[in-house]
Design goal:
The chain is mostly helical and 268 residues long. It is 70% helix and 2% strand. It has helices spanning 18-29, 34-59, 72-93, 95-102, 106-110, 117-145, 157-176, 182-198, 210-216, 220-232, 238-266; strands spanning 61-63, 69-71. The chain is elongated. The two termini are 28 Å apart.
C-alpha cells in the first residue's frame, strides 16, 4: 500500500513510500539492454543443456532425495532453477545498489523526500525479487518443456524461487551497503562461483569428506537446492521447513543491515 503519511511501523525509518523505489526501478529498467538482463538467466539454462543432456548421457540415473533413481537432468534442474533465482536477485541487489549508493548518489536524493531508509531497502529488495522471480519462472518453463517437471509439488518451486530471491536480495544488499569501491565488489563473484560449484548443484553432497559437507551446509544456495530438489519430486520433510526458515532469517538480517547502514550514512 502506498501512503504519504508516516508509517505506523518503524516511523523513524519509513514513510510507506517503498513503491516509489519500484516505480523508479521500472522506469530505469525500460532503457536497460535485454542482453544484460538475459545473461543471468541464460547461464543456468546453458548448464542444464550442456550438463543435463551431455553429461547426463554418460552418468545415467542418479539417486534422488527420496532414495529412488532419477535422470541426471532432472536431478540438476531444481538446483539450476535455484541458481537462476539467486543470480537475478544478487545481480540486482549488489552491483545496481552499489552504483546507486556510491556513484549515482540516488539514495541521498531519495532521502530528501518523504522516504525513509527502510522504504529504500524494501523497494530495492522488492525489485530484486521481481528479477529473481522472472528468472525462476522462465527457467521453470524451460524445465517443463524438457519434461523435467514430474510432480504437482513442483508448482511450489516458483514461490520458493521467490523466497530464495528474497534471502539473497536482502543479504546481498545489506553487505553491499558496507562496500566502498569496485575492488571490494569482486567479492560477489568470488563467493558466488564457489557456492554454485560446491552446493550439491551438479553432484550429491556425499561425494565430499564429512567436514566439507558441514561447510557446504552453511551456504545458502545448498538450502535452496535441497528444498527445490525435494519439491521437484514431491518429497517434503521437516527438513524442508528448516530450509525455508534459513531464507527468512537471511532476508531479515539483510534488510536490517541495509536499513541501519543507510540511516548511519545519510541521516546524521
Amino acid at each position: 500500500m502506498i501512503e504519504m503519511g508516516r508509517s505506523l511501523l518503524f516511523p523513524s525509518l519509513r514513510s510507506g513510500n517503498a513503491t516509489g523505489v519500484l516505480l523508479r526501478a521500472w522506469t530505469a529498467f525500460k532503457s536497460t539492454s535485454w542482453a544484460t538482463v538475459a545473461s543471468g538467466f541464460m547461464e543456468p539454462v546453458l548448464y542444464l543443456l550442456a550438463m543435463g543432456m551431455g553429461m547426463g548421457a554418460l552418468v545415467g540415473d542418479v539417486v534422488g532425495p527420496d532414495g529412488n533413481p532419477m535422470s541426471y537432468a532432472a536431478y540438476i534442474a531444481p538446483a539450476l532453477l535455484t541458481t537462476s533465482a539467486m543470480n537475478g536477485a544478487v545481480y540486482e541487489s549488489t552491483w545496481n545498489v552499489f552504483f546507486k549508493l556510491r556513484f549515482g548518489k540516488i539514495y541521498q536524493v531519495m532521502l530528501q523526500t518523504p522516504m525513509g531508509p527502510m522504504d529504500i531497502a524494501l523497494g530495492e529488495v522488492g525489485w530484486a525479487l521481481l528479477r529473481g522471480l522472472a528468472y525462476g519462472v522462465a527457467f521453470m518453463v524451460v524445465a517443463f518443456v524438457m519434461g523435467l517437471v514430474t510432480s504437482l509439488w513442483a508448482l511450489l518451486m516458483v514461490p520458493v524461487a521467490l523466497l530464495v530471491a528474497l534471502g539473497f536480495a536482502g543479504f546481498g544488499m545489506g553487505i553491499t551497503s558496507y562496500l566502498t569501491n569496485f575492488r571490494q565488489m569482486d567479492v560477489v563473484g568470488f563467493v558466488m562461483l564457489p557456492m554454485f560449484l560446491f552446493s550439491a548443484t551438479l553432484y550429491p553432497i556425499t561425494v565430499y569428506p564429512e567436514w566439507i559437507q558441514w561447510v557446504v551446509k552453511v551456504m545458502p544456495l545448498w538450502h535452496g537446492v535441497e528444498l527445490m530438489r525435494g519439491l521437484s519430486i514431491g518429497y517434503v520433510t521437516w527438513g524442508s521447513l528448516g530450509h525455508l526458515a534459513y531464507f527468512l532469517v537471511m532476508a531479515g538480517v539483510g534488510l536490517t543491515l541495509m536499513t541501519l547502514r543507510l540511516r548511519k550514512l545519510f541521516l546524521r
